[in-house]
Specification:
This protein is about 85% helix and about 0% strand. It is an all-alpha fold. Helix 3 packs antiparallel against helix 6, helix 3 (about 40-75) runs parallel beside helix 8 (about 170-220) and helix 6 packs antiparallel against helix 8 (about 170-220).
Length: about 250
């Protein structure tokens, strides 16, 4: 199972290395895109780099969980407890019960799923934030473009001989707005896809832990017949009914 973890981590590292090679290879173009609106694009780049780093942090947090589960499945009683995700389940399974009930199995699996979902919320938020920043830059650039064309048209005097020079100077603002719109959208989508791809691999690693634990616990689960679960309740209701009937007959 640890080999599966290292395989996922290697794919994430290979993808990140490809991103770095692409940025280095197209460095002049990347700098021109980033400096078209250095404030907004800088925020997008910083948010994207933070999201990529967060994905690797979440992956390394899974390593103790992998080690504990591997040791537990192979009967290692001295395996250190996992720190976060599987710790409640590990504490309840320390006694290594021979069998567990189906209800206990469902409770364990639901607990693990909830904890996995919570751990992925940060990566999802970063991905959505990158998409939002890209859209924000698009609308921001469109506002600048429309405002620039409006100012240009109001400043043009077609009876003047310098109308072409005035138009040439006035086009700089609309063009800068279009550059902001396109570059922010490009960076936002590119980084959101990158963080989403790495977040998907984090989810794959978590699913591997979940399936391994589910298979092991399912092999030690005792299925209780429905009649065995309902029979104590039926006996209790029968006694209560008999007591009620005897009470009214004595009256």
């Amino acid at each position: 199972m640890t080999n599966h973890f290292h395989g996922v981590l290697n794919r994430m590292a290979f993808f990140t290395a490809l991103l770095l090679v692409g940025v280095i290879f197209f460095w002049p173009q990347f700098i021109s895109i980033a400096t078209s609106n250095i404030v907004l694009n800088g925020i997008i780049i910083g948010c994207g780099v933070f999201g990529i780093g967060l994905c690797f942090v979440e992956m390394f947090k899974l390593l103790p969980e992998y080690r504990w589960l591997s040791g537990y499945v192979h009967g290692n009683k001295n395996a250190p407890l996992p720190p976060v995700l599987l710790r409640p389940v590990a504490l309840m399974l320390q006694a290594r019960p021979k069998t567990i009930s189906s209800n206990t199995l469902l409770g364990f699996l639901d607990m693990i799923l909830i904890r996995f979902e919570d751990s992925r919320e940060s990566v999802r938020y970063i991905t959505n934030t990158l998409i939002f920043l890209g859209l924000l830059g698009t609308f921001w650039g469109l506002i600048i473009t429309v405002g620039g064309f409006s100012n240009l048209l109001s400043a043009l005097d077609f009876s003047s001989e310098s109308v072409l020079n005035t138009m040439q100077v006035g086009l700089s603002q609309p063009l800068s707005g279009m550059a902001t719109a396109f570059t922010s959208s490009l960076l936002g989508l590119a980084f959101s896809l990158s963080v989403g791809f790495l977040g998907l691999h984090v989810q794959l690693a978590q699913n591997a832990i979940f399936r391994e634990l589910e298979d092991y616990l399912s092999a030690h689960t005792q299925i209780t017949a429905p009649t065995e679960e309902i029979l104590p309740q039926i006996n209790l209701l029968t006694r209560e009914l008999s007591r009620y009937v005897d009470k009214h007959e004595n009256k």
